[in-house]
Fold each of these.
Amino acid sequence: MTPFRFPTRIVNIGTVPLGGHHPIRVQSMTNTNTLDTDATVAQAIRMIEAGCEYVRIAVPGIMEAKNLRNIKTGLQKRGYQTPLIADVHFNPGIAKIAAAIVEKVRINPGNYVDKNKKSMLDAGYWMLDKNYDHELDEIAKRIAPLISICKEHGTVIRIGTNHGSLSDRIMERYGDTPEGMVESALEFVRICRGFDFHDLVLGMKASNVRVMIAANRLLVERMKEEQMNYPIHLGVTEAGSGEDGRIKSAIGIGSLLADGIGDTIRVSITEDPEFEIPVAYGILQATGVRITKTEFISCPSCARTLFNIQDVLEKVKARTRHLTGLKIAVMGCIVNGPGEMPDADYGYVGAGKGKVMLYKRQELVKKNVDEAVALEELIELIKENGDWKELIDNG
């Protein structure tokens, strides 16, 4: 059964479309000096080879924005057409340069507000509608040139709201809350819609997993209310490293994917970006939204298990891990085994000392198979049903 997914509009990011019926895309971000063309190109290639479908590049200044062209050319000369995303955090003028070069630009709404007037810091200033609405008009004027460039070049904009960088005007009205994050993004969406520009992606990111989940769920509710359906970027920002970073990312991103929310994901861990990609695909696989490998179902073992299930599982994996899309169960006994693998395509279930039952879905196909030949019998069963593929050795 295909999981429910919030139906979003399709935006074309270069040759890799996002949203709608398209697969949930995986992206990551370079951490090299963007002025070092060779280093950035080399790292981008490692990311792409690991499965990265969009390469995001930090663009902190004007010179870095201009160097995006050299990076793009360097990748193309090596045969890579993967879309590039410029990550712009500070000067909005940088986004205008980048938008004429790359396929997508990420902007932060907090950077388009006027931070220079002292009166804006007065308590209650942003609670007055005339001040709040006037600033929205000013923001529209500031972002109009970027929208014009994006229209000309077919560039997508991601409106990326971060929990830790909301503007004073949003903070005064909504506080540092999911509501503030959502409104910060949607007021920009409304401005873009006013210019008849719809090539947008929205992102609600936070290092706090619960805030990130709440903000994205609220975003979908609000989009439904306003008849919007823009694709959503998911990520837990500053998740950390190692097991901690992977767990936080899996909880935040995975919870939303299980809700049917999300069109592209980035796992943000403090490691080289190519190591983020396997984690991302693992989350997609675990939530059942994008199958990229064989899935194995196995029990933790108990006193009823009369064979070394850990050893058997590894042997089954070694022989069948190339059968992308299949679910194979290795269960310790017949007490709970068959009932706890209802959606497995094939089952290897302990039936007593030295004996194994083999299943095709819920049907018992081979009974009391000798453990010594059970793995070969399982492979033969897969072949008989037309699900076997020969492993191609690319070495």
Note: The mean pLDDT is 91.
Amino acid sequence: MREEIVDRLQSANLRFIRLYPGDSGRRQPVHTVYGGAHLFKADTASRLGALALRALEEYAPKPSDLAWVPEALAPKVHARVVEKLRREPVEDFRADFEDGYGNRPDDEEDGHAETAAREMAAGMAAGTLPPFIGIRIKPFTEELRERSFRTLELFLTALGPLPDNFVVTLPKVTNPEQVAALADLFDLLEPALGLPGGSLHLEIMVETPQSILDSQGRCPLPLLVYAARGRCVAAHFGTYDYTASCNITAAHQRMDHPACDFAKHMMQVAFAGTGIQISDGATNVLPVAPHRGEELTAEQIEENRAVVHDAWWLHSQHIRHSLINAFYQGWDLHPAQLVTRYATVFAFFLEGLDAASERLRNFVQKAAQATLVGDVFDDAATGQGLLNYFLRAVNCGALSEEEALERSGLTLEELRGRSFVKILANRRG
């Protein structure tokens, strides 16, 4: 009888571990930049970085111009934004064959699928691609699935070997069969194109109410991931399709709408512990100056500045809302939004640095016993969260590895190992 109890318990525990293996340990980009596939070039990332630097120099040349950053942090944040835009301006890019591309004649999309792939291959050879990259195909609806299939096949055939961290984004997912179909296509394309088995990965876009609650009152999000058979690595929220589907008027379709928060909390719950990375959507009010030309009046120059700064402020508030709610990735649609993205993310991590440093140092030194730092009580569940704070800060450029080691009290091996459990086990040993 005891053996039967143990067997049932062990079986249940092992099944849970398979379904919820925990954080994958992969670096997560802070954003995904979307751009029409017809415009994609091998050096797109560096060109976007140059445009972002120009916007920073024109509209925020001084640290104090970053009005959404705490005054004490502004000089450090400003300098690190400049360094980031020069070194790695784009962390993740998606050559878009969907909303950013539109519906075009078949022969035109055929041509763009092949030219975009050749540009991506050229960028891979030249080392100019961002660390994460991919394409977004059209949705697998009855009207568009054949077009989507063809674009995917043409692109991958022309691309050849895959860049690092390459992913295919499937938009407007409404049922698990659509995800399964993409996984099935991967199964066919890998051997046909000489790609290693399992090398193609996908991410789903949560853009419809039916992906949150199906016709039987169930949350289908886990089923969407299971349908990918291990190929799904991320789920991205689509703000504007989702809010439109909920009949929210255009004036109120925004990232921090309560309807969006509900859907994103559902995503968090569904994907917690699975290793699936989640991303928020985009701010569609862009920092674009209304007046162009070299002979602008003082009034026009000031209006340009006000429009750009208002858009930056809104973008920064949306990013901060996402970060507070543990969505550490979002979409960017315009090069000037890179300024806000990095400045807001850097400020977010630097604001909490002192408290996180003290808590992690104290917790590690006491070998994960429950501790009290000031008026904050930490138990074992907090350790990995504190470690993840430093990992994310280093990955995005808010902190250097040297600063993270100095402030956290960890060794380089411990930081790069990404596991708080292993840190404690080794120190106890």
Note: The beta strands are 31-36, 92-96, 132-136, 166-170, 202-206, 232-237, 277-279, 330-332, 371-373, 376-378.
Amino acid sequence: MSFVGCVGRDRFGDAALRLWRSEGVESTHVRRSASHTGLGFVIVDRKGANAISVDPGANSDLQESDVGRALAGSSRGSVLLLQLEVPVKTVNAAIRLGSRRGMVVILNPAPSTTGSPLDLRRVDVLTPNASEFSTLAGTPDLRRGTRKLLGKGVGATIVTLGERGAFVREHGESYLLRPPRVKVVDTTGAGDAFNGALAVALAEGSNVRAAVEFANAAGALTVAKREVIPALPPRSQVDSLLRKMQD
């Protein structure tokens, strides 16, 4: 697993690199820029809902050339997971390069943007939350909006709906997959956990339905704990929860 991005030459950048090394994440393609490391400031209410203010910092410095170097050795069938905390032109370049190389391109369109258009024609899996979905589809209607997005070339659309689960449309079929029931403590990082787990499952050869069930379990375990990094579950816990759901 490799991470591509930019961090600053500050203590937050140092901490990020130490974390990736400790987790076995390849960080060769993380560039250190003159900007400060991107930061997020999180407010969580008593029900676990959150509001996040983001200062992108070095994230804004990620260039198309950085992506080109990182994907030069990518293999067909590997998974490319993208999000929008970096410039849209860089994301679009990554989508095009990943698609040409036969990668499975997953785009988590967060945070939502109404600026430069996204190149959705080459996106295999699109994973917006409800508000991001409304912005992209131009409607909150799940069935109508997901049909519209697939009409733009998206392979499958997965709309994350919090405690309601995930609404999926792929190949003319649509369905809702509900997550395990947990006591919600802090919803921060749930989308990150969901998308990371989804990418893992697809990389391992799971179909979309099975991958979403795996991702739902990872997201549920994350919201049951406080903060982001400490709440992200190890693989063993996700597998254990899935087994309990199937018993």
Note: The mean pLDDT is 94.
Amino acid sequence: MSISRRMWFSVFLSLPALAAAQQSRAPATPVPDAAEGRIKLDMVVTDKTGKPAYGLEQKDFTLLDNNHPAKILSFQAFDGTVQKADPPTEVILLLDTVNAEFQPVSYAQKDVEKFLRQNGGNLAQPVSIYLFTNQGVKVRLKPTTDGDALANELGEVDTGLRTIGRTAAEAGAIERFGRSVEMVDLIAKSVEQKPGRKLLVWVGPGWPLLNFADLAVSHKDRETYFDRIVQTSHLLRDARITLYSIALGERNPGTFAYESFLNGVKSVGRANPPNLGLKVLATQSGGRVLGPDNDLAAQIRRVIADANTFYTLSFDPPKADRANEYHDLKVQIDQPGLTARTSTGYYNQP
């Protein structure tokens, strides 16, 4: 790695939130209600056609923690009609102006406005708009079901051109990577104390995966990446955030395969930058990767379909032998043809 690349690489490694994570590898976990377990999972269950499955009971579910059955301590089913979540699931639409060129951002902005104005501007869920810019994140109005008000506000926004351009080559890619991962954590921290479930919809192609052929990653670098992976996992789960990746454009067969990094990182030696990619984090949180295609509003509607019909269960993790002990999670359903999407794992603490 050149001196210039190493300098920019250090920008990410020295981010304030990461420094806090390095001081303590065991982030605090909110104390649940007495009737609940220490870990809460929100899950969406669908049939073979992708439609939500209604009417399931606790006895239909088996939770496997590292392939061992775990006792479900609490269970709730929400169908959006008779059994509604209180508070309702909040949708955060984040428009990423950092990792895309001006024209795609402009198109995405118009498609988001189109979605907000559907059905006379009456939104099924409370929605807030976040703008991710080089100056940080800007929140446009508080969560509301008034789509017209949100669209009007968004229409007045001048997103401008990003200053971390592609001309900055690898150094710019490294900086955008760092800023983007930091933004995920900051949003999770900002809503962690708010009750209820949240769907964070990242509008844009996502940040670079830093899969440079000659990228030299030292053991110290891997320690830092591992700490960030653990921290982000904790923050998303504790804030009850499910992450979604949606984007406009054409599918590129040559795009780096994020699927290679979906397995949980069990040790420092296996930690790499792509483990923190947008699509990786979205899949691991129980969310979805949609697009790219030419109908962003339709992608958002598919996300909203996950907002009302879902199940929530909780459990207590077993005693851990060491800090940041990774545990794989699987949910099995005792009915044919059904699939559950939820968090794929967690980091246990002694």
Note: The chain has eight helices and 13 strands.
